[in-house]
Amino acid sequence: MKHLVSLVVCLAMVMSLCCGALAEDTIKIGAILSFTGAASHESALLKQGYDFAAEYWNNQGGIESLGGAKIEMVYADHADDVEIAKTEYERLKSEGCVMMTGDYSGGSVMLAMQPLTERYHIPFVVSQQSALEVYTEGNEWTFNPTNDASTNAQGLVGIVQMVEEKFGDKIDGVGFIVTNTEWGQSQMESFKKYFTEAGIETVYNEVFESGTADFSAQIQKMKAANVKFIVPVIEAFNDAVLLYRQMKEYECNVGFLCCGGVMVTPQFKEAVGECDGIFSTDTWNPGFLPAHGEEAVAIEKKYQEEYNMRMNENAGCAWNAVAVMVAALEAAGSTDGDALQTALKNMDLPEDSKYMIMTPFEGMKFGYPDNNGNYGHNIYGLSTCSQMIDGEWKMVWPDCLLGDNNPIVWPIN
Q1: What's the confidence (pLDDT) of residue 24?
Q2: SS3 track for 65-104
Q3: Taking a C-beta distance cutoff of 8 angstroms, is the pair 355, 364 a contact?
Q4: Could you give the C-alpha distances from 275 to 236, 263, 387, in angstroms and in order?
Q5: Within 13 A of 282's CA, how many CA atoms are on the CB side?
Q6: Mean pLDDT per 10-residue segment, the chain (413 residues)
Q7: CB 146 within 8 A of CB 283
Q8: Which of 23, 317, 362, 386 sits between 20 and 30 A of 225, alpha carbons compared?
Q9: What is the largest CA-CA distance in the chain?
């Protein structure tokens, strides 16, 4: 009998070791962000969202299928440098991170990390990475719960079409000014495609280097081209503030159709002052929460109490990423990379799933390809749109999330 007991104990130990995190108290998730790069501000907001989401799910009991194991976020700074990003990825792997998340930067950093995530079989669930190059066929380990350059373009087209439908005004004379990065170029090409298909006239295209000290030449070109609405695709906070200020200084009175990023942060409004009327895509905005019920509103209120600000696009995208990873861990019942990839590929969360409580989409299902031909992207993912109204970003599109509560203000100039 003594030998039999010993055998049973040994078998239990082996099974525990083979089942990933079953014998662990915590599950490490690596988050690679741009803490000292151009997107340092957004990365700090993303960190708040990751920490808040991890705390929420841990307080809900952790990963039940793994014995209540808790999530531990482990952070790395890629500083917008592809070599640093790869080194930090290796460090996070060596520290036992079973999934990765991030990245807020131009697509080059994410593209540099993708071969590593493929080689090591560690799923990468992005928070905000819209560069379409990331989602080409063959990238089997990258998953995007939210938006990309395609959905950003479709969101802005949606605003234009909604204005025409509601107010009878046709928006034409659109111009693009974008940062000279993979993200900027990808966004502009996508915008041009979808705007052209929608019959929206574009009259100006400009690419600029991040860190530009003066936008006066670009502004004069906008005036000469008779730009009526400008679509800025800008990564760096200082670039966005300078462009907006100089547009006002040179009395270039155009409407802004922004695509998220720095322009939807509270700090942008603080820096530029009055900016009511501008529109922007924003992958996440609290405007839809009342339709999701009291618990969703309560979660966002708790975030406000903890961080002294409303939950913003960055925090909301971080929440989406954590919720998806928690759902994958629960479904897999393991921290094995192949099991997690399978769980992500098979994921099909309905709108009323507990994992979707803070997510403004009809569901969560990763397409190979999705309806825009991109791989590993949530087929229900879209870019919501908001407008700055009375000093606050308020969701105004799509109507199906708002109904009669749409607060849109028109005209804007």
Answers
A1: 63
A2: HHCCEEEEEEEEECCCCHHHHHHHHHHHHHCCCCEEEECC
A3: yes
A4: 18, 10, 10
A5: 28
A6: 41 40 76 92 94 98 97 97 96 98 84 95 92 87 89 89 91 91 79 90 92 94 94 90 95 90 84 92 87 93 96 93 98 98 98 95 93 91 91 88 84 78
A7: yes
A8: 386
A9: 92
Q: How many angstroms separate the CA atoms of 368 and 357, rounded? A: 25
**Are residues 275 and 244 in contact, defined by beta-carbon separation less than 8 angstroms?**
yes
Contact 179, 242 (CB under 8 A): no
List the one residue out of 372, 377, 373, 375 whose CA is nearest residue 361: 377
Structure token pair of residue 85: 């990003």
Omega before residue 398 within 30° of 0, cis: yes
Q: What is the DSSP string of 236-286?
A: -HHHHHHHHHHHHHTT---EEEE-SGGGGSHHHHHHH---TT-EEE-S--G
Which residue shows structure tokens 């690679």?
32
Question: How far is 410 from 301, CA to CA, in rounded Å?
Answer: 30
N-terminal to C-terminal alpha carbon distance within the chain: 86
Helix (H, G, I), strand (E, B) or coil at 157: helix
Q: Kindly give, in sequence order, each residue whose CB lies less than 8 Å from that of residue 350, ignoring residues fewer than 6 positions away.
A: 356, 363
β 26-33/385-389 pair status:
unpaired
The pTM of the full predicted model, rounded to 2 decimals, is 0.80
CB 145 within 8 A of CB 363: no
